[in-house]
Amino acid sequence: ELQLVQSGAEVKKPGESLKISCQGTGYSFSNYWVAWVRQMPGQGLEWMGSVYIGDSDAKYSPSFQGQVTISADKSLNIAYLHWNSLKASDTARYYCARAISYCSISTCYTMDVWGQGTTVTV
Amino acid sequence: QSALTQPPSASGSPGQSVTISCTGTSSDVGGYNYVSWYQQHPGKAPKLMIYEVTKRPSGVPDRFSGSKSGNTASLTVSGLQADDEADYYCSSYAGRNTWVFGGGTKLTVL
To answer: What percent of chain B has a predicted confidence (pLDDT) above 70?
Structure first.
């Protein structure tokens, strides 16, 4: 079964660092992009950036460039979202999703598998 | 890269149809036939309902349909059911492995 499993909820203080993770199972994780999506309390979804697991190439939304670092470990099938210095405004639920950037028989340019979300409270 | 524009709310009675719009620009919605729609129930992860403007993943009822004209995409939910009450988000591919979401629409089944 295709699954993205995210790390557990975090409670941190302003200024602390944090790295949350997203592990893929049931498919060739390294052949795909993984997107990170922020959802602040009571708000909508925001694409933060994506990482290609195979070579760790990362793309960022201009709104998040320089604010977070997105990386991956191909050997562990894990994508990461990292903050050097958290702010209260980083309080949100963060989702990872498999981002398909091509067309195949079954899907085309979409985010088809989502993790369960990680709540970060600062 | 601005968010796509969706109405904040929509509503309909059981059995009726409702359409939610999603307006972008020629750099996203208008430039690619790669609009997706996601359903999100409270406290749950988003679920893909429509991709490539009109296509439904396996398991999504055909009561859900999508369309696009110019820079505006639409999601229509026909035969509204109680469980359709949720937040709906559109998203568009915006080139070079970048994406943009809409602000979301809260669908209420009256």
So the answer is: 100
